[in-house]
Specification:
Strand order of the largest sheet: 4-5-7-6-8-9-10-11
Strand content: 15-25%
Helix content: 25-40%
Family: Belongs to the 'GDXG' lipolytic enzyme family.
Domain Alpha/beta hydrolase fold-3: 76-280
Organism: Abrus precatorius
Protein name: 2-hydroxyisoflavanone dehydratase-like
Active site: 164
Largest sheet: 8 strands, mixed
Distance between the termini: 68 Å
Shape: globular
Structural class: alpha/beta
Length: 309
């Protein structure tokens, strides 16, 4: 055995450690919970494979009255956070959060499992998520491989959402859909919770996870530098911020840039006083966590009312 195999070559505190032999030790987002019927909400979930070779998959959520509904339900495509390098849809906090959203909003949810850096460097997470969206879009005519999406999801009323790095990915998916088209999927709104976007400061984590990073003009990280930013084809965007979040100013800058870009949509911002990054995932029962979920749901329901009349 190589005596230097336990030598640490790179470490990002609270996220992961890289050893000389190539092993990755993660410190966060390791706990998982299986799908099934949630005893509190009666939401049913299951995992489906998008690409068996890469492991890209979705955790699907079906609200309790989906089977008895007289019409198909809106679809929320959710993208988890974790600095592009930790966490998964299967973590208990995300599973609990999306059970609550599915039940209260009465929507079908597809939560994307993409590959993590550094083993799979950026931009792989973007390509994986786009593949999952395209796979989901294939169900619009009711002839896709997944019965839940065929029978219960209305791909004419679709929302994108994500938190932290997942919010970054969500925005990038909206921009890719703007450029390439969403197929038979119609994007009606996007919710960005405590989004991660680049600013003028050097970000060593991004530089490590993203070998082809283009610096402060890279449109995947510094999204407002995208020359097509104002062409975003999404009619409404909701941005959540928190006063004590280390990413707060970046989310606020995104909001201002989008509002003033000439974009032909409506952007709203909700700022929670005294709260930190993704506080709603850590303590979902506190008053402001409940308020965040309520606002998230009302945003989707308002668009559904507008679309369905």
């Amino acid at each position: 055995m190589d005596p230097t195999s336990d030598e640490i070559v790179r470490e990002f505190p609270r996220l992961f450690r890289v050893y000389k032999d190539g092993r990755i030790e993660r410190f966060l987002g390791l706990e998982t919970t299986p799908p099934g019927t949630d005893p509190q909400t009666a939401v049913i979930s299951k995992d489906v494979t998008v690409n068996s070779q890469t492991g890209v998959s979705l955790r699907l959520y079906l609200p309790p009255n989906a089977a008895s509904s007289s019409h198909k339900l809106p679809l929320l495509i959710y993208i988890h956070g974790g600095a592009f390098c930790v966490c998964a849809p299967f973590n208990p906090a995300y599973h609990r959060h999306l059970n609550a959203v599915a039940a209260q909003a009465n929507v079908v949810i597809a939560s994307v499992h993409y590959r993590l850096a550094p083993e799979h460097p950026l931009p792989i997470c973007y390509d994986d998520t786009w593949e999952a969206i395209q796979w989901t879009s294939s169900h619009a005519t009711g002839n896709g491989p997944e019965p839940w999406l065929n029978d219960h999801a209305d791909l004419g009323v679709v929302f994108l959402a994500g938190d932290s790095a997942g919010a970054n990915i969500a925005h990038n998916m909206a921009m890719r859909g703007t450029a390439e088209g969403f197929g038979d999927l119609k994007l009606e709104g996007m919710v960005l919770i405590h989004p991660y976007f680049g600013n003028e400061k050097k970000d060593e984590l991004v530089e490590y996870l993203y070998p082809t990073y283009g610096g402060p003009d890279d449109p995947k990280i510094h999204v407002t530098k995208d020359p097509n930013f104002s062409g975003l084809k999404c009619p409404r965007v909701l941005v959540f911020l928190s006063e004590k979040d280390f990413l707060r100013d970046r989310g606020a800058s995104y909001y201002e840039a989008l509002k003033n870009s000439g974009w032909k949509g409506v952007v709203e911002m909700v700022d929670f006083e005294g709260e930190e990054h993704v506080f709603h995932l850590f303590d979902p029962t506190k008053e402001k966590s409940v308020a965040l979920v309520t606002r998230f749901i009302s945003f989707m329901k308002q668009i559904e009312v507008d679309v369905r009349g």
